[in-house]
Amino acid sequence: MSQQLIKGISICHPVKATKEYMIQAIKYATQNGIDHIQYGGPMHDHARGNIDGMTMYRKYNLFNSFKDEAYIKESIEILNEACRVAKESNIKFFAWHHELFLPTDFKDAYPEILNENGDIEVSHPIVQDFIENKVADFFHSYPLMDGIVLTLHETQVPLLKLKNQKLGKIERVKHVTKILFDSCRALGKELIVRPFASTDEDYEMMTKAYEEISPELVVMDKWTQFDWSLTMPSNPFFNKIKNNPLFVEADIFGEYFGKGRLPIMLRDHLAKKFEYSEKFSPLGYAARIDRANQIPFGDVNEVNLHIYSAHLNGKNPEDAINTFFESKYPGCGAEVRDLMEKTENVLIKSIYIKGYLFSELSIFPRLNHCINHYYFEMMKEGCNIQSNEWYIPKGWKRSSTDEMIKEKADGVEAANAAYEELLTLKDKIEASEYEKLLLKFTNLKYVAKMWQLLLFVHMSYARYFETNDEKYETELMDNIQKMLDLSKEATTALGDKFYCNNMSNGKYYDLVGLFTSDVIKGFNLEKIGCKNLASKHDTLDYVLCGGACEGHVLQKEVNFSDTIIKDDSLCRIPGNRNGMKWSAINAHGWFSFEMKVKPNCANKIEIVADNDDGQIEFMLTINGETHKVSKESRNKETIMVDFAENHGYDTVRVRIDKVSGYTPCVYSIRTIK
After folding, report:
1. Strand-pair category, 246-251 with 218-222
2. First to last CA, the chain
3. Has residue 582 got a pLDDT over 70?
4. Is 35 exposed, middle or buried (0-12, 13-18, 19+ CB in 10 A)?
5. 123-143 b/e (C-beta count within 10 Å ≥ 16 → b)
6. DSSP code of 243?
7. 3-state secondary structure (DSSP) of residue 426
8. Which terminal CB of the chain, N or C, has fewer other CB atoms within 10 Å?
9. Which one, of 618, 615, 609, 608, lies nearest residue 631 by Cα?
10. DSSP state of 279
11. What is the pLDDT of residues 345-378, one digit of tens each?
12. Contact, 643 vs 649, CB < 8 A?
């Protein structure tokens, strides 16, 4: 590796800074030749996230009422001190930022920024002025900060998912990115951009936009394609970044494989990713080292930082690993290393299905998240997944039922064996260090078993609606009870430290209890909904949106087609739940199904939908034929549409697009005999 290589770490994902941890991270950086630190912060917190949440506006001070002033004061104190200490060791310091962000009431104060469809017009001069001023405000408050790391996704106003814009996608990316690039340069600061795309099309579009802005614009991209799954291939889009410096983003903590609460050693994974990335002569690396208040220092997973440091500094990773274990666990370093060697494989077998991310970012999932991500379809004998979702590996084919069951059983067996092996080391390891290991490996044992039961729950749920055989309902309830019993056992043993008791906003949540409650509710609602739709004498085919029997070769907008339970009914929205909460201006998603029709004749389709804002609006497309639906309503509405003769085909693809600030909730779609 080049001696000029930037050696970076990325911290506080996605939580606020504390002075103790900041100084600890800077100390680690100084000792390991790290010369670049990125601060993530609570980027998904509406009030505290991004540079907006860290700064009081000056020109646009009328929008400061939504801010957390105490948090901003604390951030200014901690981060400016961190920047000062970092500068003493020649370490650069950057802050993460997501755009496009506008205060919720911005559109009310400046209605002229809305276009005729009720969307933010991205190219409006007021939007540009607001961004320019927030950048100036940020560096006024944090003068020692070296720059900003920009992401154009996961925002209140989703730049790429808006329609009805004067600028196309690539021009939008260029417009907003250039505002930040020019604003930073004018202040002597740097901008690093993250494509963070979830489709091939978006990747190519964004990298082209960055290239056209400036050859000096640094592009930081993940070394796994799309996101952090262990099973994702190395990022092929490094090939697309030809005329801009490449900065490689890494995860050495375990964002999608335990989030630091489960034991994981990534020796082989890191070796493969460094070997791949070096082919592209990157400017440098920045690795995430923490997640959700779980930090690596003083923990067995700290071994990954030593492996990372060895790769960056041209040292032998094997020597670094042995030194770490011998120092931390004197007298039995080799035995603990042997335990950790097995962890990556145990987690892949437990929380994945043949490489498919069978969880919610490795946290125990919510039911609607599962429905939204094809989990029920995967369990059907007639599984038919046609998706462009990033987390389904390209060319992925489901295992057989027996293979899925065996994979989970193997994970349980391996986790139990590791746990039992650890118990034999109790008297060889210092007591406090042993207790930390015991917590991690006990959690691993329970996680492997819980994900095995998760498989059985989804399988019996899906098979019921596939076969209408009541034995699967009995199996479902039995597996739910086993899941609850296991959660009770694990909570008795581990309390709030049980992996499936997840902390959010300072409070622990029983995710297994929430999940099973939603499963029972969703199952009962789906039974009622399916019975009602199937019983209508003129039904040819139907989709109960958001359910296990939804199927019908579902396709949808990546990350922007959520399912919810609303008014005691399952439904799907062509957008996202957070967008519905924050603002009428949210992602313009879409979804579609393949449905039966009568060939060689005209057909009718029935859609049941509503919208809380009193207006139902969406675009209905049937085999390329479009129908604009727009009507006032505050209740569920039944919408009937006639569509053209379908020559010789007995199926059509029915697609629903969000086209305005009104997000439709779609409950069912039915074709009529």
Report:
1. parallel
2. 67
3. no
4. middle
5. bbeebbebbbebbbbbbebbe
6. S
7. helix
8. C
9. 615
10. G
11. 999 999 988 888 777 778 888 887 777 678 888 8
12. no
